[in-house]
Specification:
This protein is mainly α and about 300 residues long. It folds into three domains: about 5-120, no CATH class; about 135-185, no CATH class; about 190-290, no CATH class. About 55% of the residues lie in helices and about 10% in strands. It has helices spanning about 30-35, 70-80, 85-95, 100-120, 120-145, 150-160, 170-180, 185-190, 200-215, 220-225, 240-255, 270-295; strands spanning about 5-10, 40-45, 50, 55, 60, 190-195, 225-230, 235-240.
Amino acid sequence: MPSAFTLREPSKLNVTESPLGLNDNGYPMFECARILAGSVDIWRKSDERLIKPRQCYLSQKTRTIKKGTLQDIVTTIYGESDIDIDSFARNLRAYGARNRDFWTEINAELCHLIEALYSNRPVDGFLYLYRVHERVSVALPLIYAHSETDFSKALDFMKSLSGEERDGELTVFKSFVSKYFSRIDIYRDLTVDIEFGKNDSDWGKNALSEIKAAMNLDQEKNARKFRADDQNQSIEMDFIDFPVFLVSFRNRLFHYTNSIRNLNLDKIGGTFELCSAVVPPILYCLSQVIAEIIRRQVRN
């Protein structure tokens, strides 16, 4: 249970039976999916504030609470699979208690993240987004190895992720996302757009110019991964490259070093608009990773 927040059922949903509900009627694993799907209310204990976020980051659509909402979430997680809500519930009872501490931690971080975005604090939102990213970067490769029935296949795949023993967790995760998700049809050709000029084209032009300079997007190898569109003030990337972008953006946002080009935050008015543009599409990417962990743990 998140210490700062309590999850509550929306009045139109009111799920009271285990394992698809919340708190004592559910599992932190599926609660995380429901948070990302915009199907819970979040009660902040410190000021007794109830927020009702209805953005589904799994599908990038606004959530309308209705009778079939939980089935919609399961269908979104499993794609075109014909798994129904009853089959998922049976599997969740069998596997939902695995890694409970991990999912409880992710649950709490997601509550902070969604509350920050709902309260129009995108810089705080980026902080929690990055914390979830770091936590998941360890979990997904381990869960993959644990759930793979062919030990030799799993071992070979894990060894291929890093050629250096000193490589950090985020480096391994970057390699894992690239190799693992490129084998899945729906992700192989999936692209993600970060739009800087959506609300203000003049600001978007300046922001994109700063991002291009700080992240060396004029270099050919970077330009192929992160395709800047000056006309639309946006950057397009393949889904499998989002960890590279996130880590690079974080480094340029948080650090101000003398040896490399830095983001001129003063030139673009600070961090608010910048994080407002970056967080939602990257949260969509991270939501897909979390959904894949659930697919791996709650087997179809």
